[in-house]
Known about the structure:
alpha+beta; 9-stranded mixed sheet; 5-stranded antiparallel sheet; 12 helices; 21% strand; binds (2S)-amino(hydroxy)ethanoic acid; binds manganese (II) ion
Amino acid sequence: MTDRVPDASLPALAASVDESRQWARLMGMATLGAIPEDGVNRAALTELDRQARRLLIEWAQEAGLTVSIDDMANLFLRHEGTDPAAEPVLTGSHMDSQPNGGRFDGIWGVVAGLEAVQAIREAGLTTRRPIEIVAWTNEEGGRFAPGCMGSMAWSGHSAPNTWDAVTDLNGITFRAALDEQLALEADLPRRPLGPVGPQRPVAYVEAHIEQGPRLENDLLDIGVVTGIQGSRWFVVDIKGRSDHAGTSPVSLRQDAVQDMVRAINALNTLTHDPSDVLRFTVGRIEVHPNTSNSVADHVRFTIDLRHPEADILREKGDAIAATVQSALQHCTATVTERFNALPTAFPALVPDAVEQAAHALGLRPLRMPSGAFHDAQFMVPVCPTGMIFVPSKGGISHHPSEYTSPGQLAAGTRVLAATLLELANR
Length: 426
Ligand code: HGY
Ligand code: MN
Ligand code: MN
């Protein structure tokens, strides 16, 4: 490893990470889409999302970074290196939240990237390589399913027009929402989509809250993430016939809700795992006509299936459609797969750099996998990739009470800054 960052620069770098500035920025972001109990509801490609992006851009430009977006509205903030032609180190995460989300999921990784780069500059340190901070479009998939559209399109995992016809609950298509965002951000320089030419990063590091209890339970500070489990999303549409709740005999009904219950019970049997590793979730159910005194003629429900082993995810996921069909008694069903992210392992380069930075900063690291999916999952085929976790209070996330302390977040940002500095000077 050539011209490693001398540890002598570490104290100055660590001191330049400003805990209160980072916390104030996160609390500022949390006002955009604030919901009761310290929660946040800031869906992708909304006015709130655009306000958050403008706020981030303002901070970034004040710090001397340049701004650009691509055709998926992925937002990039660039710190120039002493060799501007060198391929960059990339860091970042997402700014959209779950509808009943918290103040830290995703947004901390973006704010931490800015804080880390700002600390490098304010410590008077230089990097040979540029460092770029990215805010990926629609990681959560709450408004437009699936998640990770920005990183999947950028990495070449999926074609950019894959989701054009996907609609939100108000019938707005993803394409229309994306075109609106691009039009409203037409003042921002446009860059090509993807790791093309000098945009191809040499490494990607994503800082994120753990969203689980391990670091807190083990009294440790930093998660050195080794990989991400696989995820598959499906949508099941069950079609029957609407009838009067009082006059239609049950024996003659084609009740979509009753067949949904049969299907979910059968899927529970399919996915039952005594070791509690396989994750099966039905998180959204839409019923039509959705009135108490009419039999439902259409039900749509979602399936989120996860496992760290590709063959189990494949075996169980591939059995979902047949399991649904065999459970039906009076209706018909279609099962559509929406998302298929394979389990990924991070090559040693970035996890090793993260672990080394944590030790050099006197922090306690733990090598661990991620149960949540992240944009990092799609970066693995592009470049050496890794993630940095900080503890989540009670392991809670995708909930207003999601919490990580200012000190824990600053520790994570110091590890990110040291890792970026090291990678950008290789
Ligand atoms: O669903 C996930 O795993 C991520 O938090 N969006
Ligand atoms: Mn996230
Ligand atoms: Mn999330």
